[in-house]
Amino acid sequence: MSVAIDRRLEAARAVVEDASRLALAMRPPSGGPSGSQKSAQDWLTEADGAVEAFVARRMQELFPEDGFQGEEGGSVRQGSLRWVIDPIDGTSNFARGRNRWCVSLGLLDGDRPVAGVINAPALGEIYTARLGGGAFMNGKPIHASPVTDTRSAMIEMGWSNRVPKPVFMEKIGAILDLGAMPRSGGSGALALADVACGRLDGYIEIVINLWDVAAALIILEEAGARVSPFLREGGLTGGATILAAAPGVAEALSQATGIPLA
């Protein structure tokens, strides 16, 4: 199986690089948002559909036996190995011509993340990992932050219109009470990648979908981060809560926010 996963990861990285170039070419100019709104602050652009269709077609040609699930198209193929794509994660940034967005493609073996690629072309960063093989950014090993004091920690929290304002404010308050510095960057996949490489010490989102985290889950695991049981808590079939954190602050962050760790 490891040989099969290696072959798929190598192919996925090449396909995602091509898809990222397509997305970069379609990125709107800087300014007010381009595209349509699905709901408050939830944007859809022409590039979302084009990138997903491109990757779906290429992966079917390469691995016709594999399943495939996309944010825009839903579950379009079944298979014991399943690719899950977010064609543009950080669409609100992308729609304004900003740089913080990515193409994210993860591979699951049943309910087990086994490989992932996150490509942020405007930032020049590619994150990859496979089960048991380590995590990398641009080919160099990455590891979660060594921070152990929450008063030195930088924590990002994602926002969703599906979360009541009091719940969001409660979690933000818990972060502030720890003495940590809150952040919000508009891309869940890249925030999780930042936890994996130590740029952030934690990331929380109360409701997030599988396509946002499918690639990041294995990257986090291989980088030594602690993560809540997202898939076991409903993440395979719907929105669920995620907490990812550096080992030295994970327990404190979990206790403060009430989000259990795996």
Automatic annotation (TrEMBL):
Keywords assigned: Hydrolase, Magnesium, Metal-binding
Cofactor requirements of the protein: Mg(2+)
Gene3D superfamilies: 3.40.190.80, Fructose-1,6-Bisphosphatase, subunit A, domain 1
UniProt: Mg(2+) binding residues: E71, D86, I88, D89, D212
UniProt xrefs under InterPro entries: Inositol_monoP_metal-BS (IPR020583), Inositol_monophosphatase-like (IPR000760), Inositol_monophosphatase_CS (IPR020550)
Domain of life: Bacteria
Listed SUPFAM superfamilies: Carbohydrate phosphatase
GO BP: inositol metabolic process; phosphatidylinositol phosphate biosynthetic process; signal transduction
GO molecular function: inositol monophosphate 1-phosphatase activity; metal ion binding
Transmembrane segment boundaries: none
Stated family: Belongs to the inositol monophosphatase superfamily.
Protein name according to UniProt: Inositol monophosphatase
Species of the source: Acetobacter nitrogenifigens DSM 23921 = NBRC 105050
